[in-house]
From TrEMBL:
<dbReference type="GO" id="GO:0005739">
    <property type="term" value="C:mitochondrion"/>
</dbReference>
<dbReference type="GO" id="GO:0052856">
    <property type="term" value="F:NAD(P)HX epimerase activity"/>
</dbReference>
<dbReference type="Pfam" id="PF03853">
    <property type="entry name" value="YjeF_N"/>
</dbReference>
<dbReference type="InterPro" id="IPR032976">
    <property type="entry name" value="YJEFN_prot_NAXE-like"/>
</dbReference>
<feature type="domain" description="YjeF N-terminal">
    <location>
        <begin position="1"/>
        <end position="186"/>
    </location>
</feature>
<dbReference type="InterPro" id="IPR036652">
    <property type="entry name" value="YjeF_N_dom_sf"/>
</dbReference>
<protein>
    <recommendedName>
        <fullName>ApoA-I-binding protein 2</fullName>
    </recommendedName>
</protein>
<dbReference type="InterPro" id="IPR004443">
    <property type="entry name" value="YjeF_N_dom"/>
</dbReference>
Amino acid sequence: IPVSSRQAFPLPSLPRKQPTVLVVCGPAQNGAIGLVCARHLRIFDYEPTIFYPKRSPDPLYRDFTTQCEKMDIPFLSYLPTEVQLINDAYNAVVDAVLGAEAEAAEGREPCAAILATLKHVRIPIVSLDVPSGWDVEAGSSGGISPDVLVSLSAPKQCARRFLGRQHFVAGRFLPYDVQKKFELNPPKYPGTECVVAL
């Protein structure tokens, strides 16, 4: 995941005196991206906490988990169902629950309970790639309503229905032949940035 600056997970407005972020990770690829996000947030002096209830047996994902643990990033053993506890403890939530690979996972536990809780938080939600609960093509069908969307590689079809405050694309790393094959028209990335606002 190309995360070279704090802008990659656009949280510069968080007050530095309490830069706390809850990173909620699902069991598949988007959850692994959430682990990488948490690690980068820590590098940029944020205070991430991870909720990762269904850990993947994939060795790469286990390595990401170990890296987070070695950076002293705390892991929650449960997600509070009392939404006010989340609102009081954190300044933002990173949604890395489902993503583009979601399929029918949103109806199964622990994802269903996580989505039910995230739908009620009042702090900003930053969704990675596809907001959890959204169909990758059709868009929202009762999923969460994030304030910020960070599309990975390129915006998915559902991003047309995104009504939040900011939309970023992290995709400068895409090889030219992939861009050509899928007829992608990537935005211009300023300087050495790997992320651009749309």
